[in-house]
Amino acid sequence: MKTLGHLNTILRMTLQQRAPEKVPFVDELRVVESYLAIQKVRFADRLQIKVEATPEALEGLVPCFLLQPIVENAIQHGIAPRATGGLVETYVKRVGDTLWMQVRDNGCGPNGSRSKGHGIGIQNTRERLAYFYPDAHEFHAVAPAGGGYEVRIQNPYESAAL
């Protein structure tokens, strides 16, 4: 029943979004955590999750569904292909006038994934960042030397508490 509750959270947020908009990061995090909870049921002990967000970051605004596709990619392309599974870590904090976000996994990296994606999640994320923060954001996707994959996003910090 908890899994249905998590699915309900994701569907509710999807249906409420009619146009591109920004949401408080706490709402974005709720969707990411619901998605991760569903994946945790699917992968059981093969999926480890670590999520850290500072209180100030939770009050910031972000484009709706900014991190969910990045987390989905980490699981689908990094963790799913590994027999032993792995770890997906998400960190979000305010750094001065910037909201800093990072999603990384210790999976097989972009060259080891059996399921070749089409780059739609990454491309959509880049396009939404460019739409909301033209020339005022950073997006880096790298395969660290130690393995896995890492995505870092920085955009201007905007407080949801107005």
Please explain how this structure is put together.
This protein has 162 residues and is an alpha+beta fold. It has helices at residues 2-16, 25-43, 55-58, 68-79, 120-132; strands at residues 22-24, 47-53, 61-63, 86-95, 98-105, 138-142, 149-156. A 5-stranded mixed β-sheet has the order 2-4-5-7-6. It has a two-stranded antiparallel sheet with strand order 1-3. It is globular.
Low-confidence stretches: none
Order of secondary-structure elements: HEHEHEHEEHEE
Distance separating the two termini: 36 Å
- Average the pLDDT over all residues and give the rounded result: 86
Helix content: 25-40%
Q: What is the tally of helical segments?
A: 5
* Secondary structure category: alpha+beta
Q: Could you name the key traits of this structure?
A:
alpha+beta, 5-stranded mixed beta sheet, 162 residues, 7 strands
Please give the structural blueprint.
Layout: H1 2-16, E1 22-24, H2 25-43, E2 47-53, H3 55-58, E3 61-63, H4 68-79, E4 86-95, E5 98-105, H5 120-132, E6 138-142, E7 149-156
Parallel strand pairs: 2-4
Antiparallel strand pairs: 1-3, 4-5, 5-7, 6-7
Helix pairs in contact: 1-2, 2-4
Summarize the structure.
With 162 residues, this protein is an alpha+beta fold. Helix content is 39%, strand content 27%. A hairpin with a 2-residue loop joins β4 (86-95) and β5.
